Amino acid sequence: MNLPHSFDGLPEFLAVARRLSISKAAFDIGKTPGAVSHALQKLEQRLGVPLFHRTTRKVSLTEAGEELLHKVEPAALAISTGLEDAAQSAKAPSGTLRLIVERLALPHVIEPLLPAFREAWPNLNLEITVSNRHENFVSEGYDAGILIGSYIAQDMIAVRLCKPFQWAVFGSPAYFRANGKPQSTGDLVRHQCIRFRRPEKGDIYRWEFVENGSTVRIDPAGSITVNDGELMRSLAVQGAGLIYSSTFHSSRELAAGTLEPALLECSPGYDGLFLYFSRTARNQPKLRAFIELCGQVLKI
Length: 300
Description:
- 37% of the residues lie in helices and 21% in strands.
- The chain has 300 residues and is an alpha+beta fold.
- The protein has three domains: 10-89, Winged helix-like DNA-binding domain superfamily/Winged helix DNA-binding domain (Arc Repressor Mutant, subunit A, Orthogonal Bundle), CATH 1.10.10.10; 95-162 and 272-298, Periplasmic binding protein-like II (D-Maltodextrin-Binding Protein, domain 2); 165-271, D-Maltodextrin-Binding Protein, domain 2, CATH 3.40.190.10.
Protein backbone atom coordinates (compact mmCIF):
# COMPACT_ATOMS: atom_id res chain seq x y z
CA MET A 1 0.00 0.00 0.00
CA ASN A 2 1.29 3.44 -0.93
CA LEU A 3 1.64 5.18 2.45
CA PRO A 4 0.88 8.77 1.32
CA HIS A 5 -2.54 7.51 0.07
CA SER A 6 -3.25 5.01 2.87
CA PHE A 7 -5.91 7.21 4.46
CA ASP A 8 -7.69 8.14 1.21
CA GLY A 9 -11.36 7.28 1.54
CA LEU A 10 -11.27 6.58 5.28
CA PRO A 11 -13.11 9.79 6.32
CA GLU A 12 -15.87 8.91 3.85
CA PHE A 13 -15.93 5.29 5.03
CA LEU A 14 -16.28 6.31 8.68
CA ALA A 15 -18.96 8.86 7.92
CA VAL A 16 -21.07 6.37 5.93
CA ALA A 17 -20.52 3.62 8.52
CA ARG A 18 -21.74 5.99 11.23
CA ARG A 19 -24.85 7.18 9.35
CA LEU A 20 -25.49 4.17 7.05
CA SER A 21 -26.49 6.72 4.44
CA ILE A 22 -24.35 8.20 1.69
CA SER A 23 -26.38 11.40 1.45
CA LYS A 24 -26.35 12.00 5.22
CA ALA A 25 -22.63 11.20 5.43
CA ALA A 26 -21.96 13.60 2.55
CA PHE A 27 -23.80 16.36 4.43
CA ASP A 28 -21.81 15.64 7.62
CA ILE A 29 -18.42 15.99 5.96
CA GLY A 30 -19.32 18.73 3.51
CA LYS A 31 -19.04 16.76 0.27
CA THR A 32 -21.43 15.73 -2.49
CA PRO A 33 -22.96 12.22 -2.45
CA GLY A 34 -21.21 11.55 -5.75
CA ALA A 35 -17.82 12.45 -4.28
CA VAL A 36 -18.44 10.20 -1.26
CA SER A 37 -19.48 7.27 -3.48
CA HIS A 38 -16.42 7.75 -5.67
CA ALA A 39 -14.08 7.81 -2.64
CA LEU A 40 -15.64 4.60 -1.30
CA GLN A 41 -15.30 2.86 -4.66
CA LYS A 42 -11.60 3.76 -4.85
CA LEU A 43 -11.05 2.55 -1.29
CA GLU A 44 -12.76 -0.76 -2.01
CA GLN A 45 -10.76 -1.20 -5.22
CA ARG A 46 -7.53 -0.53 -3.34
CA LEU A 47 -8.41 -3.03 -0.58
CA GLY A 48 -9.88 -5.58 -2.99
CA VAL A 49 -13.06 -6.17 -0.94
CA PRO A 50 -16.52 -4.55 -0.78
CA LEU A 51 -17.14 -2.63 2.44
CA PHE A 52 -20.86 -1.92 2.07
CA HIS A 53 -23.96 -3.63 0.78
CA ARG A 54 -25.79 -1.00 -1.30
CA THR A 55 -29.39 -1.02 -2.45
CA THR A 56 -31.59 1.84 -3.57
CA ARG A 57 -33.12 1.96 -0.08
CA LYS A 58 -30.40 0.79 2.29
CA VAL A 59 -26.67 0.82 3.01
CA SER A 60 -25.14 -1.71 5.40
CA LEU A 61 -21.65 -2.90 6.25
CA THR A 62 -20.23 -6.10 4.85
CA GLU A 63 -18.26 -8.45 7.08
CA ALA A 64 -15.02 -6.86 5.77
CA GLY A 65 -16.52 -3.43 6.44
CA GLU A 66 -17.42 -4.40 10.02
CA GLU A 67 -13.88 -5.66 10.61
CA LEU A 68 -12.30 -2.50 9.16
CA LEU A 69 -14.57 -0.27 11.25
CA HIS A 70 -13.67 -2.22 14.40
CA LYS A 71 -9.96 -1.64 13.75
CA VAL A 72 -10.03 1.89 12.38
CA GLU A 73 -12.68 3.66 14.49
CA PRO A 74 -10.63 3.76 17.76
CA ALA A 75 -7.60 5.07 15.88
CA ALA A 76 -9.73 7.69 14.14
CA LEU A 77 -11.10 8.81 17.51
CA ALA A 78 -7.56 9.05 18.92
CA ILE A 79 -6.44 11.11 15.93
CA SER A 80 -9.45 13.41 16.22
CA THR A 81 -8.83 13.88 19.95
CA GLY A 82 -5.15 14.56 19.31
CA LEU A 83 -5.95 17.20 16.71
CA GLU A 84 -8.46 18.85 19.03
CA ASP A 85 -5.90 18.86 21.84
CA ALA A 86 -3.30 20.39 19.52
CA ALA A 87 -5.74 23.08 18.43
CA GLN A 88 -6.60 23.81 22.05
CA SER A 89 -2.92 24.03 23.02
CA ALA A 90 -2.49 26.71 20.37
CA LYS A 91 -4.99 28.81 22.28
CA ALA A 92 -4.22 28.10 25.93
CA PRO A 93 -0.72 27.81 27.47
CA SER A 94 -0.01 24.34 28.83
CA GLY A 95 2.83 22.02 29.77
CA THR A 96 6.14 23.20 31.20
CA LEU A 97 8.02 26.37 30.27
CA ARG A 98 11.75 25.67 30.69
CA LEU A 99 13.98 28.73 31.14
CA ILE A 100 17.73 29.08 31.57
CA VAL A 101 18.59 32.40 33.18
CA GLU A 102 21.67 34.17 34.41
CA ARG A 103 21.72 34.96 38.11
CA LEU A 104 21.29 38.68 37.53
CA ALA A 105 17.76 38.00 36.26
CA LEU A 106 16.56 36.51 39.55
CA PRO A 107 15.94 39.72 41.56
CA HIS A 108 15.17 41.89 38.56
CA VAL A 109 12.89 39.60 36.51
CA ILE A 110 12.07 36.18 37.97
CA GLU A 111 11.24 37.15 41.56
CA PRO A 112 8.91 40.06 40.69
CA LEU A 113 7.29 38.05 37.90
CA LEU A 114 6.58 34.75 39.65
CA PRO A 115 3.53 35.76 41.77
CA ALA A 116 1.73 37.20 38.74
CA PHE A 117 2.71 34.19 36.63
CA ARG A 118 1.32 31.69 39.13
CA GLU A 119 -1.91 33.68 39.43
CA ALA A 120 -2.37 34.06 35.66
CA TRP A 121 -1.42 30.50 34.66
CA PRO A 122 -1.83 28.13 37.64
CA ASN A 123 -1.79 25.04 35.38
CA LEU A 124 1.38 26.01 33.53
CA ASN A 125 4.57 24.60 35.05
CA LEU A 126 7.75 26.67 35.17
CA GLU A 127 11.23 25.13 35.37
CA ILE A 128 14.13 27.55 35.91
CA THR A 129 17.82 26.71 35.62
CA VAL A 130 20.24 29.38 36.86
CA SER A 131 23.40 29.33 34.76
CA ASN A 132 25.70 31.53 32.69
CA ARG A 133 26.32 28.72 30.20
CA HIS A 134 23.78 29.22 27.43
CA GLU A 135 25.65 27.90 24.40
CA ASN A 136 23.47 24.80 23.92
CA PHE A 137 20.19 25.97 25.36
CA VAL A 138 18.06 24.71 22.42
CA SER A 139 19.65 21.23 22.27
CA GLU A 140 19.31 20.98 26.06
CA GLY A 141 15.55 21.44 25.80
CA TYR A 142 15.06 25.00 27.03
CA ASP A 143 12.24 27.07 25.56
CA ALA A 144 13.99 30.39 26.20
CA GLY A 145 16.83 32.05 28.09
CA ILE A 146 17.48 35.33 29.88
CA LEU A 147 20.89 36.88 29.27
CA ILE A 148 22.77 40.14 28.73
CA GLY A 149 22.07 41.27 25.17
CA SER A 150 25.69 41.41 24.00
CA TYR A 151 26.08 37.68 24.79
CA ILE A 152 23.05 36.51 22.78
CA ALA A 153 23.59 34.81 19.41
CA GLN A 154 22.50 36.94 16.46
CA ASP A 155 20.09 34.33 15.07
CA MET A 156 17.91 34.50 18.19
CA ILE A 157 14.83 36.64 18.76
CA ALA A 158 15.33 38.89 21.80
CA VAL A 159 12.80 40.78 23.94
CA ARG A 160 14.10 43.53 26.24
CA LEU A 161 13.40 43.01 29.96
CA CYS A 162 14.99 46.11 31.45
CA LYS A 163 15.87 49.69 30.60
CA PRO A 164 19.16 50.23 28.72
CA PHE A 165 22.25 50.38 30.92
CA GLN A 166 25.91 51.33 30.52
CA TRP A 167 29.17 49.52 31.25
CA ALA A 168 31.76 51.49 33.19
CA VAL A 169 34.34 51.45 35.98
CA PHE A 170 33.09 51.57 39.57
CA GLY A 171 34.75 52.24 42.89
CA SER A 172 33.83 53.26 46.42
CA PRO A 173 33.82 56.93 47.46
CA ALA A 174 36.63 56.14 49.93
CA TYR A 175 38.75 54.57 47.18
CA PHE A 176 38.30 57.58 44.91
CA ARG A 177 39.13 60.00 47.73
CA ALA A 178 42.38 58.12 48.39
CA ASN A 179 43.39 57.41 44.78
CA GLY A 180 41.47 59.80 42.57
CA LYS A 181 39.16 58.93 39.67
CA PRO A 182 40.62 57.75 36.37
CA GLN A 183 40.06 60.39 33.69
CA SER A 184 41.05 58.18 30.76
CA THR A 185 41.56 54.48 30.12
CA GLY A 186 45.31 55.04 30.33
CA ASP A 187 44.96 56.03 33.99
CA LEU A 188 43.81 52.52 34.93
CA VAL A 189 47.38 51.18 35.04
CA ARG A 190 47.91 53.26 38.17
CA HIS A 191 44.91 51.76 39.96
CA GLN A 192 44.22 48.52 41.79
CA CYS A 193 41.70 46.59 39.69
CA ILE A 194 39.64 43.60 40.76
CA ARG A 195 39.73 41.05 37.95
CA PHE A 196 36.75 38.87 37.03
CA ARG A 197 37.18 35.31 35.80
CA ARG A 198 34.12 34.25 33.82
CA PRO A 199 32.76 30.98 35.29
CA GLU A 200 31.35 29.83 31.96
CA LYS A 201 34.59 30.32 30.00
CA GLY A 202 37.37 30.43 32.58
CA ASP A 203 39.03 33.50 31.05
CA ILE A 204 39.69 36.92 32.58
CA TYR A 205 37.06 39.38 31.42
CA ARG A 206 38.61 42.27 29.53
CA TRP A 207 37.34 45.77 30.17
CA GLU A 208 35.94 47.35 27.02
CA PHE A 209 35.69 51.07 26.25
CA VAL A 210 35.25 53.42 23.33
CA GLU A 211 37.81 56.24 23.36
CA ASN A 212 38.44 58.74 20.55
CA GLY A 213 36.14 56.73 18.31
CA SER A 214 38.08 53.48 18.74
CA THR A 215 37.34 50.37 20.79
CA VAL A 216 39.80 49.81 23.63
CA ARG A 217 40.02 46.49 25.47
CA ILE A 218 42.10 46.30 28.64
CA ASP A 219 43.29 43.25 30.53
CA PRO A 220 43.22 44.82 34.02
CA ALA A 221 46.10 44.42 36.42
CA GLY A 222 45.32 43.54 40.02
CA SER A 223 46.12 41.22 42.87
CA ILE A 224 42.52 40.05 43.38
CA THR A 225 40.63 37.81 40.94
CA VAL A 226 37.10 36.52 41.57
CA ASN A 227 34.50 34.57 39.59
CA ASP A 228 31.39 35.91 41.34
CA GLY A 229 29.76 39.25 40.58
CA GLU A 230 28.28 39.75 44.04
CA LEU A 231 31.67 39.21 45.67
CA MET A 232 33.32 41.54 43.15
CA ARG A 233 30.91 44.37 43.96
CA SER A 234 31.21 43.74 47.69
CA LEU A 235 34.99 44.05 47.52
CA ALA A 236 34.66 47.27 45.55
CA VAL A 237 32.29 48.67 48.20
CA GLN A 238 34.94 47.86 50.81
CA GLY A 239 37.48 49.92 48.85
CA ALA A 240 39.61 46.97 47.71
CA GLY A 241 39.84 48.29 44.14
CA LEU A 242 38.03 49.24 40.95
CA ILE A 243 35.69 46.94 39.07
CA TYR A 244 34.19 46.84 35.60
CA SER A 245 30.43 46.47 35.83
CA SER A 246 27.22 48.02 34.58
CA THR A 247 24.82 50.58 35.96
CA PHE A 248 22.28 47.73 36.08
CA HIS A 249 24.42 45.17 37.92
CA SER A 250 25.50 47.85 40.41
CA SER A 251 22.12 49.61 40.68
CA ARG A 252 21.67 48.85 44.39
CA GLU A 253 25.15 50.11 45.28
CA LEU A 254 24.67 53.22 43.15
CA ALA A 255 21.34 53.95 44.83
CA ALA A 256 22.92 53.50 48.26
CA GLY A 257 25.93 55.65 47.35
CA THR A 258 28.40 52.86 48.17
CA LEU A 259 29.75 52.79 44.59
CA GLU A 260 30.36 55.59 42.10
CA PRO A 261 30.94 55.33 38.34
CA ALA A 262 33.98 56.48 36.40
CA LEU A 263 34.68 56.65 32.65
CA LEU A 264 30.96 56.60 31.81
CA GLU A 265 31.77 58.75 28.80
CA CYS A 266 33.86 55.85 27.51
CA SER A 267 31.08 53.29 27.84
CA PRO A 268 30.95 50.94 24.82
CA GLY A 269 27.22 51.58 24.50
CA TYR A 270 23.90 50.68 25.99
CA ASP A 271 23.09 47.07 26.80
CA GLY A 272 20.21 45.28 28.48
CA LEU A 273 18.80 42.11 29.92
CA PHE A 274 16.80 40.16 27.33
CA LEU A 275 14.55 37.15 27.05
CA TYR A 276 15.69 35.28 23.95
CA PHE A 277 14.44 32.25 22.01
CA SER A 278 14.69 30.55 18.63
CA ARG A 279 12.41 31.40 15.70
CA THR A 280 10.82 27.94 15.87
CA ALA A 281 9.78 28.52 19.50
CA ARG A 282 8.27 31.98 19.09
CA ASN A 283 4.68 30.78 18.51
CA GLN A 284 4.46 28.53 21.57
CA PRO A 285 1.43 29.64 23.63
CA LYS A 286 3.33 29.15 26.90
CA LEU A 287 6.16 31.39 25.70
CA ARG A 288 3.78 34.02 24.35
CA ALA A 289 2.02 34.06 27.72
CA PHE A 290 5.34 34.61 29.52
CA ILE A 291 6.35 37.42 27.15
CA GLU A 292 2.99 39.15 27.60
CA LEU A 293 3.29 38.93 31.38
CA CYS A 294 6.84 40.35 31.25
CA GLY A 295 5.49 43.42 29.48
CA GLN A 296 2.68 43.86 32.02
CA VAL A 297 4.75 43.37 35.18
CA LEU A 298 8.14 44.80 34.23
CA LYS A 299 6.65 47.73 32.27
CA ILE A 300 9.57 48.11 29.87
